[in-house]
Write a structure and sequence with these properties.
binds 5'-O-[(R)-(carboxyoxy)(hydroxy)phosphoryl]adenosine; binds zinc ion; alpha/beta; Nucleotidyltransferase, domain 5; 341 residues; 5-stranded mixed β-sheet; 2 domains; single chain; 10 strands
């Protein structure tokens, strides 16, 4: 199918890979006309984590009205939609299928292309929404609840993973430590807030594998926090949060910086929920600038899961001529840089 992609091409994006039901309308790849996110936090909170069956059902219930709201906020009619993009992976298979089925049905009804988007790739496009002309080579640090990856990009659609976590994802570490400390779920933001009241030098938690390649490990840090608090029950929670956050951010910044130097990066970009962390944003900006690199960070709401990044990534896919078949399925284990069409 030939399909001319321009600055006025309007893409409807749908994101249902985990626990946010999100729909957005984006024009020309970066002009966000609307971005609606309905979180299922309350439904999962009492279980302390995302329950896949609950997620699928909640997506099914929320998607119609979230879509209506996204179109209303964008002040456009369905007939103005030129293509429909949806996350096809990675994520929870049942949750993914809700969004993919809705996107295909919408594309079919409107007789417009459907494009399947890789959720990991989309987190990068969240960073590029405000900086579409970021220069390559680019070191992309994806730090979310499910992933921690350092990726070399020499151009759009050119991904090489240079490092990753060997155990817990960065966000998972924040969430597990927060849960242990009795802070709110999900834990990243709660730790970020508690840390502002604490002393980050109070406890010297370990920084694993600091000078050893580009991989990271957070499981030892989490265990160190648990052991420390059990041995020192009177310790201030704010001090633990601040010291943990400092250790986690030190590791992320140190590794990202080394990887960026290794690939002669001109730009460091971050994406994923942990990229909303105040200390990480400050420290990566200082480090990147000290090394003469541009630092590109998504706005806070674009760090966590949303559909504007899906619509944006979809626009770039379409611009490369990538249109997905209506037979295409979802892939819960989709990797970065692997064609899914
Ligand atoms: O990208 P995301 O919405 O979901 C995945 O694709 O995984 O990331 C969610 C993760 C959670 O682990 C959450 O605790 C973390 O991002 N997070 C934060 C902050 N805000 C969200 N972690 C640290 N500091 C924050 N301010
Ligand atoms: Zn995500």
């Amino acid at each position: 199918m030939t399909f001319a992609v321009t600055e006025s091409t309007v893409v409807l994006g749908i994101e249902t890979s985990c626990d946010e039901t999100a729909v957005a309308v984006v024009m020309g790849g970066t002009d966000v006309l609307s971005s609606v996110v309905a979180s299922q936090l309350d439904e999962h909170a009492r279980f302390g984590g995302v329950v896949p069956e609950i997620a699928s059902r909640a997506h099914l219930e929320a998607l119609p009205h979230v879509t209506v709201q996204a179109l209303a906020e964008a002040k456009i009619d369905l007939s103005r939609i030129d293509a429909v993009a949806a996350t096809v992976g990675p994520g929870l298979i049942g949750a993914l299928l809700v969004g993919v089925s809705a996107a295909k049905a919408t594309a079919l009804a409107l007789a417009v292309p459907f494009v399947g988007v890789n959720h990991l790739e989309a987190h990068l496009y969240a960073a590029l929404l405000d900086e579409p002309n970021a220069e390559f080579p680019l070191l992309f640090g994806l730090v979310s609840g499910g992933h921690t990856l350092f990726v070399e990009m020499t151009n759009h659609d050119s991904y090489r993973v240079v490092g990753q976590t060997i155990d817990d994802a960065a966000g998972e570490a924040f969430d597990k430590v927060a849960r242990f400390l009795g802070l709110a779920y999900p834990g990243g933001l709660a730790i970020d807030n508690a840390a502002t009241r604490g002393n980050d030098k109070a406890i010297n938690f370990p920084r694993a594998m600091l000078n050893d390649g580009f991989n990271v490990s957070f499981s030892g840090l989490k265990t160190a926090v648990i052991n420390y608090v059990r041995a020192n029950p009177a310790v201030s929670t704010d001090d633990v949060a601040a010291s943990f956050q400092r250790a986690a951010v030190d590791v992320l910044v140190h590794k990202a910086r080394r990887a960026a130097r290794e690939i002669n990066a001109r730009t460091i970009a971050l994406g994923g929920g942990v990229a909303a962390n105040s200390l990480l944003r400050r420290e990566i900006t200082t480090a990147g600038h000290a090394d003469g690199m541009a630092v590109v960070l998504p706005s806070r709401e674009m760090c966590t899961d949303n559909a504007a990044m899906i619509a944006s990534a979809g626009w770039y896919c379409l611009r490369r001529g990538e249109v997905s078949s209506l037979d295409a399925g979802a892939n819960p284990n989709l990797k970065l840089g692997v064609a899914q069409r």
